Give the backbone structure.
Amino acid sequence: MRRVGGGFLALIALTLPLWLPSAYHLHVAIMAGIFGVLALSLNLLLGYTGQLSLGHAAFFGIGAYTSALLTLTLEWSFWPALAAAIALAGAAGWFIGRLSLKLRGAYFVLVTISFAGVISLVSVNWIELTNGPLGLPGVPAPELGPWSLRTKTTYYYLVLAAVALSYAVSRRLVGSRIGRAFVALRENEALAESIGVDVTHYLVLAAVVSAAMAGLGGSLYAHYTRFVSPEVFLFSYTVTMVIMVVAGGKGTLAGPLVGAVLFTALPEVLRAATSWQWQMLAYGVLLVLLVVFMPRGIVPHINAAFSRTPRP
Amino acid sequence: MEQLLQHLVNGLVLGGTYALLGIGLTLIFGLMNVVNFAHGEFYTLGAYAAFAALGWAGVDFFTAVLAAIAAGAALGWLCEVTLLRPLRSESIDTTMLVMIGVWIAMQNGELLVWGGVAKSIPHPFPTAPLVLGPVAIAPLRLFVLLIAAGLIAASWLLIQKTKLGRAMRATFQDRDTAALMGVGIGRIHAATFAFGSALAAAAGALLGPVFLAYPSMGDLASLKAFSVVILGGLGNLPGATLGGLLLGVAEELGAGYISSGYRDAVGFVIIILVLLFRPAGLFARQERIA
Amino acid sequence: MLAVRNLAVRFGGVTALEGVSFDVRPGSITSVIGPNGAGKTTAFNAITGYLRPTGGRVSYDGVTLTGLRPSAIAQRGIVRTFQRTSVFRSLSVENNVMTGLHLRGTAGFLAVLLGRRRLADEERHLASDAAAIIEFVGLAHRRREAASALPYGEQRLVELALALAARPRVLLLDEPGAGMTGAEKTVVSGLIRKVREQNVTILLVEHDMRMVMGISDTVIVLNGGRVIAEGAPAEIQAHPDVIRAYLGASHGSA
């Protein structure tokens, strides 16, 4: 049943460009994919190890800037730049993980916010490198061998591959002893240590993988919009990721993706009717309502409706 | 040397309002175990409330500051009663997410009402600075410093001398015992949140005329309040006062001697460094979040 | 052999443990008893790395444990349970034990991302180990239920299963019978004996004297942070210092 459903969804995802009515719809699908990668990334930390990072836009931004700068100033091609973006964001995740080894809850949140704040200020002020608030225009479109991936359709497949990769990595981790160690850390740290789980090691590992994944999203974003500015560090990106994960269902694999699709499509629908401010206001209210009335998220609610056994 | 003194004076003006922000946050954090990410929004609210009172109601500046404080207290009370009270038995993570939601909603609500253009709040003070020996200070800034000092002193009196303050201290020490002693937790929490929010609103109303009022001004205010709380220690009132002054001075020095572009980085760096090197003292109460 | 030498723990000015020394013979069941506040749980915390002792040394087979993280101590085969029930509440019994099997797994990050056959084999082995452990503590019928949904006594069995999953050589049990009914305590005593038969050394803190005297080979008595007596159950029951400590304590606390 589950497998059939998954196959059906995969089929829809693969054929999407064929039956979407316009390039605009495809654009929304691409953004949903990029946010899907980001939401999966945040979910590893928030959903599985239970640590809320409110500085996730920093990893996203580091990925975007790394990729943009390497292709623009050093004229690297897309693929090595992408790899470097993932690596550098992962290194930043390692740094944050090491930094906050002993910090939990609100203190972890504060360190991640502060880190993002510092990085964002650097992107504005280090004008020789980043061109400051004006940003970096003209980020090249990626190429695959002789083919340019400039069109929306090809870019869609590139993003889809990234989503599939992120999903596969998450799924493999979660289903393994590493994922069980993550959950142990979330559920009860003292108990986790008592059965031999080196909590700090797994926290750092989760931070690295999560940050690297966000870096992947950042690189894809940079080469899609072809423009990077300090706006990539905007707090609203982090908030969007958090809402996607919490709404979809933190600590589930499908939840972040459901959240990403929903919360990329919803604002686009709302946009026709209302202004951006109303949207963000609605986001805030929605987050409050979700936490109060559906604290576990959409996917766990649906799962609970279908079966009675609790799933981790 | 004169330049240094000048920076110190400017730092104290900022620091006084940071202390107001920090005291409110540290009380809410320490007493209610709520990480109030919406704290800075009450600061914004204070600035806009003063602006509205001046422009719409046409009251004088001092009444406007009082109105801002009242608005902060009222909305803080409302927020506690409607949102936090039903969630009191939930984990700290849950209330934190709710307050993040409140933060976003309030900020964008302000954006809708006031628009994105920064508002300048008029004040009755002459712009010519008072020259006191080697330093010059704008009369408005002096006023801000004095009122902030007065409010800090008032908070002290409230906590130390009143019945409400005693109940708050008892709750902070031990929630269960305080409840046994007949302290009404619901009332204490509502009072604490209203009081903390009122202080934040006061800070906004005071600093609003010094700088400008704009919808996202609360983001940095929140972060500064958190820096102050972390510097001073959780639930520590004298700590928050000193921490506020210290942060204000550190920012002025950073902006003056390093680069003004990195002024706001000082708070971030303080958060990271303090948590890094003094975590034991700071998170002793925090150890079992899970 | 687990050896505790001159262990001392002070909190601020308060001395919780002072000059505590004892050995836990391999394959024995050794109990630590004493009035409330005697320092029993403090000793457990210091031995298992949850508390850094102010002085003294703990070693296992000559290897120093003092100063290691709890997880590193668990890796060396010294595994504990907690006084307050500790299970992964939202996980099923099965997943609790699977998590407890952490140290039996070997797959690292790359193996998890890239592995195929070997990874699947390992998971299958772990699952069958988990099933065996759940069977051993008698919770097979509860396998798929969330730990938090179980009655108290069964939650304590999940806790025991978790500890066993970590493949202990020395198992430290902090009041395994606390809050249990008489029948449940008998079950737990039986399980402890069976665990010992598998060559696991047991060190336990327990208040229930009937249970302690029934299963222990050696009993160590702590009072005021010091060892005041050590010996076979019969010796301890007749020991004048022990009687005095318990009478004094009951005067003070009751």
In short: Chain B has twelve helices and two strands. The first helix of chain B runs from residue 2 to 32. Chain B has one domain: 2-286. The longest strand of chain B covers residues 130-132.
